[in-house]
Amino acid sequence: MRALRILLVLAVVLGGLFAIGDRLALREAESEAASRIRVSQGLSSDPAVSIHGFPFLTQVLDKRFEQVDLSMAGVAATVGDRQVRVGELTAELRDVRVEGDYTRAVAATASGTARISYGELRKISDSDVTLEYGGDGKIKVTGTVEILGRKLTRSVLSTVSVVDGSTIRVRADQVPGEGIPMLEELVRQRTDFDREVGGFPAGLEIREVEATADGLMVTVGGKDVVLTG
Prior knowledge:
Oligomer: single chain
């Protein structure tokens, strides 16, 4: 009986040591991943990286991770032929499979959101316009046109949408014509635009865009998303 108690105590102690070691290894891996992402993305600070699932070391041996969550700010995104800074980006990666000598990683599913400020969004317009939140999920776009020797400044409420999973489209709902020939066409040349968003990992696409008071919220998602390799 005494021997059994000793074995049980040893089992509990060793189990506790394994758990502690597992957690230490997890924290080290998260820290290393955050540091590498900061360097590769040119960020000013480490992103938040959370690797879920227990035990962690078993996942390392299996080269399969249950879930990885990322949160970062200041990431550069390619929109059209320009770069904009993403104010906030979060991502949830599930069933991440690592292949080879950790040179390729694929997530069975991936989802996330990114916030682009209206100041950054203005950079992707070819026109000298002002963009701000217009309320009720609309973007208020203000621009100036010249017609018949007169300069006219007009503001329109625009709807933002997704085209083909990769393009952000901004279209004015209505342009006040005021009986002036060509006014609507000229205003739309200033306020309406389509821009393709590039640089996504293979398998990831834009699912939804929404205008909010804090900026444009972009929701992305996909299956069999190639993260590296």
